[in-house]
Automatic annotation (TrEMBL):
Binding site for S-adenosyl-L-methionine: G82, W84, D105, D121, D145
Taxonomic path: Bacteria, Pseudomonadati, Pseudomonadota, Alphaproteobacteria, Holosporales
Function per UniProt: Specifically methylates the uridine in position 2552 of 23S rRNA at the 2'-O position of the ribose in the fully assembled 50S ribosomal subunit.
Keywords recorded for this protein, A-Z: Cytoplasm, Methyltransferase, rRNA processing, S-adenosyl-L-methionine, Transferase
Designated name of the protein: Ribosomal RNA large subunit methyltransferase E
Extent of Polar residues compositional bias: 1-11
UniProt family annotation: Belongs to the class I-like SAM-binding methyltransferase superfamily. RNA methyltransferase RlmE family.
Organism encoding this protein: Candidatus Nucleicultrix amoebiphila FS5
Active site: K185 (proton acceptor)
Keyword Methyltransferase: yes
Keyword Calcium recorded: no
Gene name in the database record: rlmE
Length: 231
């Protein structure tokens, strides 16, 4: 889906909007505000009632790789504010009485029908054990959109987010069904090559993918691993 197609529809507004001038607003904050106001994915996510522009990243991943199917069991790591959860619920047709979509985040997530939500630090082994107790069995898809807080130092940010991806992978290897899918965010920086090599040992197909919804200036990409081989 191209969100710019909707900008001529009823109720649309020009994308080239200048951020309002505010006293004591740092240049970095002004740039962020300007970017948000001019971002078609921000506007379209609001129009569709989605919780974040990142919803379109998962939609585009699914359009390319067909990873979310009706009745699939899905775990979303780093799920706040819930944009990926919304897409997963729609695609899997998860029901409130027996949710097949589980989300976890350090931050509180606003309740969402069709999901089971956990607030806690995924890196805490006790929290992971609680998650396993809730799952009570294998899953079809593990999604990780986790990213460490940025420091402004590209190499540090790359390594910290890659560490989260490695933790997510170890969890996925324990809970995925044979043939299952693992999707993880990372920032380009060199270390992803070794990570991809590890993925290829456990999955039949591993591909890099940069959704159109990922900002062009960002080094953000995703690794999509399909066809889990259970040892």
């Amino acid at each position: 889906m191209n969100p710019q197609k909707s900008t001529t529809s009823k109720g649309s507004r020009p994308l080239k909007t200048r951020a309002l001038k505010k006293k004591n607003l740092k240049n970095s904050s002004k740039q962020w505000l300007q970017r948000q106001l001019n971002d078609p994915y921000v506007f379209e996510s609001q129009r569709q009632g989605l919780r974040s522009r990142s919803s379109f990243k998962l939609k585009q991943i699914d359009e390319n790789f067909k990873i979310l199917k009706p009745n699939a069991r899905v775990v979303d790591l780093g799920a706040a504010p819930g944009g990926w959860l919304q897409i997963a619920v729609m695609k899997t047709q998860s029901k409130s009485e027996n949710p097949s979509v589980i989300g976890i985040d350090l931050l509180e997530i606003e309740p969402l029908k069709g999901t089971k939500l956990i607030q806690g630090d995924f890196l805490d082994k006790a929290v992971q054990e609680s998650l396993l107790d809730i799952l009570k069995g294998p899953v079809d898809v593990v999604l990780s959109d986790m990213a460490a807080n940025t420091t402004g130092h590209a190499t540090t940010d790359h390594l910290r987010t890659l560490m989260l991806a490695e933790e997510a992978l170890q969890f996925a290897l324990n809970v995925l069904k044979p043939g299952g899918t693992f999707v993880s965010k990372f920032f380009q920086g060199g270390g992803e090559k070794d990570f991809m090599t590890t993925l290829k040992k456990h999955f039949r197909q591993v591909k890099f993918f940069k959704p159109d919804a990922s900002r062009k200036e960002s080094s953000e990409m995703y690794l999509v691993a399909q066809g889990f081989r259970k040892e």
